[in-house]
Specification:
With about 425 residues, the protein is mainly α. It contains 15 helices and two strands.
Amino acid sequence: RGGGAYIVAKENIGANAGLIAAASLLVDYTLTVSVSISAGVLAITSAAPQLHPYRVEICLAFLALLMVGNLRGIRESGQIFAVPTYFFVVCMFGLIAAGVYRSLTGTLVPVDAPLPPNAGSMPLTTFLLLTAFANGCTAMTGVEAVSDGVPAFRPPESKNAAATLVTMAALGVSMFLGVTFLAHAYRVMPTGTESGVSQLARAIFGSRTIFYYMVQAATTLILVLAANTAYADFPRLASIVSRDRYLPRQFMNQGDRLAFSNGIIVLSVFAAVLIVAFRGDTQSLLPLYMIGVFVSFTLSQSGMVIHWRQTKAPGWKTSALINGFGAIVTGTVLLVVAVTKTFEGAWIVLLLIPAIVAVFKGTRRHYDHVAAQLTLRGYSSQAKVHNTVIVPIGGVQRAVVEALRYAETLSDDVRAVYVDVDSAATEHRSCRST
């Protein structure tokens, strides 16, 4: 059915939990667009540093391109987007293989990157470990799009979605471990003007080689496609929530290309605001990114535990144990992220989610109030009202006669009214009518 965490939390935990999950996902999708586009543009400006001052304008250009494309209805997305996806996978595994080969053969040359001012001076504390753990958890963001977009899969939808999740996990873990190993081996340090992948590709392939530009192009394409994923899921989730009368019904309307146009436009506006407010800086946007997705993760996992306990299907104890463990892990991550990232901007999301839930409830109260006013329960029909139809005329002619004939279909009491402004003209019209 789609809806993912919203449906699971609403049906198994309660309406409030479902609304929190929906608000978290809508925030997460908006941040997916802004973070993905900003990171994709960072890949471009890493290869062409002279474009760095124009990163906000480039981000907005990509955003406008995605909005227009989705408003016009991107239906062949599976065929179109498969090529950049495979291209990225090949480039990343090629980068990892070349880097590991250099490491094994002793030809590895570390990146000459400036160290942060406090590098080496921070003690290895629990808080530092938790911060590193929270930063690493960004790798999990995005997987919720599969469960929320189940209707987009070919039948059997659930099996294809599950296979996609397994494939994503295998590829994600492999690339994450490979890039992490290379980043440590090459001593890559994050900077505001060059991405870590760009530093690795430059160190392994050279800064002016075709392989370096292939890695940067693949990174840009895959991040733009990641932003496009939110354009499929945000409008769909908004339409599901509006179907339950927690958002305006306009989010259910589809345009002439069968796209949820209102959801697409709203998503684009909010993402543009974030890009402009944070100047297209990926590092500033990332702390906001993780709160929403782990709220939805925790609620959906908890909801599935309740679901298995209620249905008691074969093997339900194992399934409930797996989901319960998942709820504990994601809940722990949520607490860690909330504590470690609050002062880096995560407080915005912590305030925004309750505000969106309040909007949901206010919208539902409005629709319930209107429904109560329009209900036929306790309604008694009134006595028939006799109306008098008045037809203003400027003279007597065929059109006036037809108008009066139509007025007689509305009431038995029809009166033609002529305003006497010019006495001579009135007398002339009176003579003509007789």
